[in-house]
């Protein structure tokens, strides 16, 4: 395959993933889209590559994993900031539980949330180019919780294109 075909394939895949994450269904907002941003949980996100694990201390007490689509992984590997349009990040979280077999170890407990960030600098220009989705049991949480997303990112990680997670190679 010629390099130009590879580039076109990558752009096409990024567009398809982005459309899925944005909830594009014939131009309508998807049924399970996040309020404010219209972000949905992308198909196949659990097969994306790991960007980094995380441990959230009290009060949440969660184990987390941040995954990224191909556009995100390429940006992280290339240390590209700002992240390009089409970047999608998925944060999965579970309750942090002590292993019953080996006391010093932790295991995931009950799933708590899936959080999605989608980069579209035109659509989400007012929020640093990012759209946000927070889901519990596959359903978006209320609008009040989504209103806090950008404010927290803006206050703490504006200099890293509003993204907390660093790559764990």
UniProtKB/TrEMBL annotation:
UniProt entry keywords in alphabetical sequence: Signal
Descriptive protein name: Cytochrome P460 domain-containing protein
Pfam families: Cytochrome_P460 (PF16694)
CDD domains in the cross-refs: cyt_P460_Mc-like
UniProt organism field: Mycoplana azooxidifex
InterPro entries the UniProt entry points to: Cytochrome_P460 (IPR032033), Cytochrome_P460_sp (IPR038142)
Signal peptide location: 1-19
Domain Cytochrome P460 span(s) in chain numbering: 42-165
